[in-house]
Amino acid sequence: MWFPVMKLFNLQFLWFLVLLNGLFFHCHSLARHKFVVKETPYTRLCSTKKILTINGKFPGPTLYVHKGDTVIVDVYNKGKENITIHWHGVKLPKYPWADGTEYITQCPIKPGAKFSQKIILSREEGTLWWHAHSDWSRATVHGAIIVHPKKGSGYPFPKPHAEVPIILGEWWKKDVEEVLNMLRRTGGDPNVSDALTINGQPGDLYPCSKSDTFKLMVDHGKTYLLRLINAGMSDIIFFAVAKHQLTVVGSDASYTKPLKANYIAISPGQTIDALLQASQPLGHYYMAAGVYSSASGVAYDNTTTTAIIQYKGNYSSSSSPPLPSLPYYNDTNASVSFTGRLRSLGSEEHPVHIPLNISTKLLFTVSINTLPCANNSCEGPNGTRVSASVNNISFVSPSIDILQAYYKHISGVYGANFPSYPPLVFDYTAEYLPLELELPQNGTEVKVLKYNSTVEIVLQGTNLVAGTDHPMHLHGYSFYVVGWGFGNFDKDKDPLGYNLVDPPLQNTIAVPKKGWTAIRFKATNPDDLWLAYNLIAEGDTVLAVTVRKVLREAASGGRESQDAERVKLKLEIKVEAMDYDKEGSVLRIRGKNILENEHVKIGAFHTLEIQLHRPFVLRKIADGEIDEQYVGDEEVGGGCERFGEKRNPSPASEKK
Ligand SMILES: [Cu+2]
């Protein structure tokens, strides 16, 4: 028995850009949240164990934001292990530093350390989620992100009476890290979960659960927006509500054309917004969820989690509420036919922008693989260790994060040779494939894309080891799912069937078993520090906003005293010279202020510093000495403390 160990979250890229203009620093007042990672005892299925939580909550706290907001989350790691927190589906335009993907954009936050993460919402609107991105900690460390429309604008559907996060998860009686450790030791099949959960509760069909089953109280005649999140570890989940049809209106924080559905299929990592009309006779009704498991011979959690829709009012509720009927556990058709019916809304306010002329075409095979074990001692097929790969490369986590290596020019951390096409062409979806094809290469390779390139990736599932669905997720982008099909992708025929009118815009997609999925996006999400590094030239003008202490005189009791007042002021520095410090991690810009203002003279000479390898701190230095601190945005940082390196104490604070 074996299992697609790493089928989830395989896509990791490093973006490359060419140019952009303008360098702006804004000052905002930002909403700030505190996330304390800590162990908390929880009882499920008649036994108690300590789980990792945020602020003691499972599922964790919901972040409520509006489209376009920026918020800061201060993450304190009071747990025993390294951790990162990832904002799944948040694009973080030009700001990958807070993405929270371990060893991709940051080193993990060590126990006892803190990392302030700035979360920049841009075009997302709907439901997203956050989760831990280290080992299996996301099993319990996760929560919803609800992105409301901008203040003053509304939904593209009648405003629901209430909105309810429905988080689908999994519960193990064992410690989840123990499950992972065992998996690593044996190289085989992880213990399947003991229960599925809805909002942290297994529900009535499990022992010791009934009194805590999640209940949604509804008023007859009203409409409710269910914000579904699949926070499970690896499986697509079927979800339905007894006697109630759902109307899907969004997925992955993008609106869809209303889609009536008797059940929903939701990939791990995906979100679906669905309207539920409370239009049935007063009573209790079950909502229920169970996994879709497509790989034959692979163990799966075959239990069913439930929650209750309970109508308010006076009535006598009969014995047991009705259960909805869910598709059969291996009903591939039920899974793909639901997903295949999703369409972008494509309204005036929510238009579609599908790249039509593709500059970069990529074909990635997605496979389950096997690695040899000494004496065939592992528990994968024939004593091997189960692995996974994209274009036959099994990702090896580097020792420091790729983003830092990129900015600090540290070689040997990753290679830029991720293949654009499968290294070996074979009949990917054939029923029987030679064993030697199962062996992947291990590597840490990135595919570098040009800024503004229009990219199509065909994700081709293979039938190696076990044909199964492959959930794939992209960071920093949503993509249009322009096509999918069974069998091998045909580059001449299949594109003729693409939907280039209203394909859904998603950040997560499950490549169907023995099939392919084509996605498109425009590579427009570079990093502003790279911009600073490459863009500014002598003669340019840099706009900076600073807070400056200004002395003012005040009369008090006849005596003169001096008071400091903090004023915000804008400078425009005409760049005369630039250099980098010897590590290449700080860019110094020198020049004269050219903007008339009350506190700084025109022509006053300034030095600005930009930290190139971490969330940026911009400082002004006068005559070689730090005078006061410039803050680009809110100062954020921390988190990455490899090589025994501590955060550089800011020279400005040293002086205080
Ligand atoms: Cu993500």
Model description:
Helix content is 6%, strand content 39%. With 656 residues, it is mostly beta strands. Residues 1-29, 528-535, 554-561 and 622-656 have low confidence and may be disordered. Bound molecules: copper (II) ion. Residues 86, 88, 473, 475 line the site of copper (II) ion. Keywords: Apoplast, Copper, Cytoplasm, Lignin degradation, Metal-binding, Oxidoreductase, Repeat, Secreted. It is an enzyme of class 1 (oxidoreductase). Its main location: secreted. Residues 642-656 have a biased composition (Basic and acidic residues). Belongs to the multicopper oxidase family.
How would you summarize this macromolecular structure in one to three sentences?
The protein has 656 residues and is mostly beta strands. The chain contains five helices and 37 strands. Copper (II) ion binds at residues 86, 88, 473, 475.
